[in-house]
Design goal:
Two copies of one chain form a homodimer.
Chain A lengths: L4 H17 L6 H8 L3 H4 L6 H24 L5 H18 L1 H9 L8 H24 L8 H13 L1 H4 L8 H14 L6
Chain A binds a DNA duplex (30 and 30 nucleotides) through helix 3.
Chain lengths: 191, 191
DNA sequence: TGAGCAGACTAACAAGTGTTAGTTTTTACA
DNA sequence: TGTAAAAACTAACACTTGTTAGTCTGCTCA
């Protein structure tokens, strides 16, 4: 695989702009200005605005799907698996903060790959629910509606991209630990 | 105050479209089609696209600010206040689901009223933090970083608009109770 | 009945959109 | 140093954008 540094820079810059104003409000001329070039020159590196969005979103969505599958198939108890899911979100969001904004806010603007994205998201949530249900079966987790548990956790984890950039002195593993404490102790059945 | 039903319909319809695609991706012609009229006719009722966004966002933001002030100044303990904040979000989101999407996703597209909006949001969060800090002082709440607690709670509450429409059989007070259980028991210091 | 008016319409505008064609400049290296 | 590829440029396209001007329709009520 050859190195495509210029294309990568464009995509990274686009993600930053998409985070600030959303995909639809960012023009190719905005992106070109941020790159220090003219809009037409972008097309020496990318095929379309749509392609940029696709690359940003699909690659991260696949990272999540693969990550949760590994966690699900590991030999840990359910609460440990949930802690690992939290750590997965913290890690990906730390490495790809701007891209996470597009994943959350601009997925509906995918044109050719919307079905693919929705399939990945549904798989992810189905596996998440399975982990919770197994935790309820094994009496690790309070018998609350598993959808509400997932919704609560995912809402927080999906909003991390808004919050992580504000904490310049961020310690990644410490954040994951704190979030686990808050999110999991709440659903951990005290015996 | 005279009844402006047509204008209200336009704003309500706009909020629905904004929720699906975001402010920038919705055109005045989209809105007109959804209203069963031509784009130019919209201007018999509203002054600009921007005005629609302003009305949607500012009115709800003020509702939140007023609501949390009443809660903060009431004579309850801190955990009860947090439960009331949760109920406030559930109530407003149930009544104004589509408008909540604009509040969350499109505030950055406010042109003249961005400062006003940010002031309202900062006030809201400052009061929220005060409630948490008082709860920590009175030993009701675990001495965790109050920002992380607020972030966790607000992430979930601000995402409710995504989730409430999927639960057609929704019982509002039951949802508020479940969320309080999950969100608060996690930070409630067990003695 | 007929005057007034709210609210729809058609037509058009200036500016902005993503993208292409064709050309020039810069870079890498034989 | 000469050459070819990579990557920038100018100019323009067809279309879409929010919005305005001016007109027509149909309802209300004196």
């Amino acid at each position: 695989m050859m190195q495509q540094t210029r294309k990568d820079e464009i995509i990274k810059t686009a993600a930053k702009l998409f985070k600030e104003k959303g995909y639809s409000a960012v023009t190719m001329r905005d992106l070109a200005t941020a790159m220090g070039m003219k809009a037409a020159s972008l097309y020496n590196h990318i095929n379309s605005k749509q392609e940029i969005l696709k690359i940003i979103i699909i690659s991260i969505a696949e990272e999540f799907t693969k990550g949760i599958d590994v966690i699900y198939n590991s030999y840990n108890n359910s609460l440990d698996k949930l802690s690992q899911v939290i750590a997965l979100h913290v890690k990906i969001t730390t490495n790809s903060t701007n891209e996470m904004a597009s994943l959350n806010n601009d997925w509906m603007h995918l044109e050719g790959q919307l079905d693919h994205y929705l399939r990945l998201r549904n798989n992810y949530e189905a596996t998440f629910i399975k982990i919770i249900n197994e935790g309820i079966s094994s009496s690790e987790i309070k018998p609350v509606n598993p959808e509400i548990i997932m919704f609560t956790m995912l809402s927080t984890l999906r909003s991390l991209f808004l919050w992580i950039p504000k904490k310049e002195d961020l310690n990644v593993s410490e954040l994951a630990t704190n979030l686990s404490e808050i999110l999991i102790q709440g659903i951990n059945k005290k015996l």
